[in-house]
Amino acid sequence: MRKSLLLLAAGVVLSFGAAFAASGTVSVAMSGNAITLNPADTNGNLDFSIERPIYEGLVGFDKAGKLVPELATSWTASPDATVFTFDLRKGVTFQDGTPFNAEAVKTYFDWVIDPANHFVRESLYNVIKNIDVVSEYQVKFTLSKPFGAMLYTFAHPAGRIVSPAAIKKYGKDVKQHPVGTGPFAFESWTPGQKVVLKANPDYWGDAPQVANLQFLFVPNAATRVAMLQSGEAQFIEDLPPQLVDPIKSAANLNVTAQPSIYVRYMAMNTQAKPFKDPRVRRALNYAVDKKTIVDVIAKSYGTELTAPIAKQVTGYSAQTPYAYDPEKAKQLLAEAGYPNGFTFTIDSLNSTTYQQIDQVLQQMFAKVGVTAKINPMESGTFSSTVFAPFDKTTLQAVVIGWSPSTGDADWGLRPLFDKASWPPDLYNLAFYDNPNVNKLIADGLSTANQDIRNQAYAAAEKTIWNDAPWVFLYSPYNIAGISAKLNGVFYMPDGTVDARAAALQ
Amino acid sequence: MWRYLIRRLIELVPTLIGVSLAVFLFIHAIPGDPARLAAGQDASLADVEAMRVRLGLNHSLPVQYLYFLRNAVHGDFGLSYRQQVPVLQVVREHFLPTLLLSTSAIVVAFVFGVLSGVMAATRRNSWLDLVITGLSATGISVPSFFLGILLIYLFAVDLRWFPVTGSVSLRGLVLPSVSLALAPLATIARFVRSSFLEVSGEDFVRTASAKGLGYAAVTYKHALRNALIPVVTMTGLQFGFLLGGAVVIETVFNFTGLGWLLIQSIGFRDYAVLQVLLLLFALEFMLVNLLVDITYGALDPRIRYE
After folding, report:
1. Domain A2-11+20-238+484-504 = CATH 3.40.190.10
2. Interface residue A390 vs chain B (CB under 8 A)
């Protein structure tokens, strides 16, 4: 009796040990508070970062921003970009035990685009007309119109699939009860403090390396730095360039910085004087020393723009930068009828970074005789100012940034340069309107052939670069502080954190 | 006494309704479109309009206010725009940290403030008095966030006695409470000192000494008790402010209390949360005032409630 009990105990310990080979806890300090863990209703990078270890999509992005398979093993697209068929990975189960199959994919996307749910990501997928379960492991999407960026839209973090059983059980409350197929399962959420995940022992891919992964909410950057120094966090997100030094100088801490798909720029109202004349817009591009901006504001953690979209975005095509040349700027201004310059107002957010950019630009413009007045605003006021429709707009110029969350040129160009995207519809804050560009953007969406798409986008980028509706500034790096003991946690180019492979030495 | 209390509580109701209207108008007067902020920078106009309907912002202002009042009477304060969970749940989650922090800070401030005030007053013009008066002047002038950061680097990063972030645990409360207590402590100390000196010169204190009472009885039973009345008013006021959340200290210590929630909600134009938060702050002040009035009677039996 006693012997068999001992054996039983040993067996329990062994199986327990095998199931939970991973040990230790990794703490990631995030720059804000989680709002939702439902991918279909997620708006911000912070929530997507926490969802990343829980859920997987049909396709996703690797570290370099390249499209890679996740829950789909292969796919085909019809040449006119209206039908997309995916072969699914076999033997995958959700963390609640529900098998993953074509039915689960259909349930999720039908749920996302159900207008009754009012999800914020409905508009991303409502181009889907029909979802067919071809077989248990094959699913077919039919679109209502050609949409060449669809594959990248499936790779968007909102395309990560929630367990159909969880959708049935919790409905919209999935946001607090997330269930996916990923390497970590949801454990708990303490509002305002943290989300805790635990290793998923049944994960189909590489086994998780730590037992627990927690995301702490720490809005204050100096506090995040102190937590990394004291060992309370092993990875801190959103490290401001100004706080890099104390981490660099510590022996057991490192700074990591990766190029992002984020672009910062000054959009000029191309429909009104003085920026109606492209020569004036080009002049301001020549008047700005982009290298100084990268060095001073980003502390060299950034790179000068060489296209309207960042290098890591699919469809990027390099253009010849506007060299820093104040004399040429003055000459262009004189040709355009402004030999003595002019005065205009820059609207921007009141955050430290944007105010610093405003001030540096102000000084550089002053050197070519142009006077810029700075109008920094709090986020709510800024939002209503820039989204005013054209007949009511007060915008002359606005300094701001954009990140195309699909990682594809369409979402890096269409919302910013298409005539149909003028405020209040989208974010064409330059009120830019070039029929040729409008057509090229439409061409890029009309086919699934990536070569043809790339050609269309290259031509669009060249025209935009030459028309200069923006003063093209820079793309900041994503900067994080990391403990020397931690591996496998990194920033993706889109600014989300991927902590799936977290491992402690 | 009970009748007085009940009357005072009933009087709160019309005041609260008035405050709710003022707060409602004030919130809607701030520029900014909550529907656009909730839908996001890259949302299309159709998405924004759908969001406006989802948030109930498509009705006219008077209708929105009447809906608010009707639902509030039933205990329903709606959903947070940002988190899409009931507002009361959001506020409750952030109220506990603030209650703990402000209570511990005001207790520290009151106990040490009164002690050092009395010490300074009873040894007037001694070196101790000079030190206490000097330190309290410093205490009022040092910004709390500066003290907080100093404390973090000394006690959390270097010595590692306390955590960097103030969580709702005894150890986590120490540094933020001390940082937060310093300014009210210094104010209370100065108040006690001057009030005590004033009372010490009065006839009844001289009489108490003259009839042969000991030093301790004169100081603590007669003089201090009377000197405390203005101090209680002041402490109540400080407590009321603390209950509204300490935005700066909460940020430094990553203490997600009401101050933090307030800033988040303003940035996001979360009208639903703002409405309840501002009402709660008003209610807190009213209740603290009531508490102060009742404390008067306990300190000075001459004060009667009618």
Report:
1. yes
2. no
Residues 6+ apart with CB under 8 A from A302: A294, A474, A475, A476, A477
Q: Which residue range forms the structural domain that includes residue B134? A: 88-299
Chain B, nearest residue to A217 by Cα: B254
Domain check: are B198 and B262 in the same one? yes
**A50 token code pair:** 């926490």
The answer to whether residue B305 is domain-embedded is no
Global confidence as pTM: 0.82
CATH 3.40.190.10, chain A: domain bounds: 2-11+20-238+484-504
A21 — pLDDT class (breaks 50, 70, 90): low
- In this structure, the answer to whether residues B155 and B198 fall within a common structural domain is yes
Smallest Cβ distance to B164: which of A227, A415, A425? A227
How many angstroms away from the CA of B272 is the closest CA of chain A?
16
> Minimal Cα–Cα distance from A155 to chain B, Å?
17
User: What crossing angle do the helices spanning B271-299 and B225-243 adopt, rounded to 10°?
Assistant: 170
Hey, are the CB atoms on A120 and B269 less than 8 Å from each other? no
B171 and B291 part of one domain? yes
Q: Which of A95, A90, A216, A188 is nearest to A499 (CA)?
A: A216
| A379 Cβ under 8 Å from any chain B Cβ | yes
CA distance B145 to chain A (A): 12
B155 plus B249 within the same structural domain: yes
pLDDT at A7 over 60: no
B93/A426 Cβ within 8 A = no
Q: Where in chain A do CATH 3.10.105.10 domains reside? A: 263-476
Q: How many domains does chain B have?
A: 2
The last residue of a domain, from among B53, B87, B121:
B87
CATH classification (class only), A263-476: alpha beta
Strand A25-30 and strand A212-217: pairing?
Answer: parallel
Asked if B36's CB is within 8 angstroms of A387's CB, the reply is yes
Q: Is there a contact between A29 and A253 (Cβ–Cβ < 8 Å)?
A: no
**Residues from chain B contacting residue A230 (CB–CB below 8 Å):** 156-157, 160, 163-164
Contact B165 A380 (CB under 8 A): no
Q: How confident is the model at residue B139 (pLDDT cuts 50, 70, 90)?
A: confident
Of A35, A218, A425, the CB nearest to B45: A425
In terms of CA atoms, which chain A residue is nearest residue B254? A218
Examine residue B215 and state whether it is found in any structural domain, yes or no: yes
Q: How confident is the model at residue B166 (pLDDT cuts 50, 70, 90)?
A: low
CB nearest to A380's CB, from B160, B252, B267: B267
Q: How far is CA B70 from the centre of its chain?
A: 29
Q: Is residue B306 part of a domain?
A: no
Q: Do A123 and B44 touch (CB under 8 A)?
A: yes
Whole-number Å distance between alpha carbons of B124 and B116:
12
A20 falls in which pLDDT band (50, 70, 90)? very low
Alpha-carbon span A215 to A238, nearest angstrom: 13
Percent of chain B clearing pLDDT 90 (strictly above) = 31
- Tokens coding A263: 């672009």
CA distances from A147 to A76, A81, A337, A453, A462 (A): 14, 5, 44, 11, 23
Is residue B186 domain-shared with residue B274, that is, in the same domain?
Answer: yes
- Of A171-185, A408-422, B35-49, the least confident: B35-49
Number of inter-chain CB pairs under 8 A, A vs B: 116
Q: Which two tokens stand for residue B209?
A: 């000494």
In a domain, B6, yes or no: yes
Q: Report CB contact under 8 Å: A380, B156.
A: no
Q: Using the beta-carbon criterion (under 8 Å), do A232 and B84 form an inter-chain contact? A: no
Q: What is the CATH number of the domain that holds B128?
A: 1.10.3720.10
Chain A residue with the nearest C-alpha to that of B265 = A380
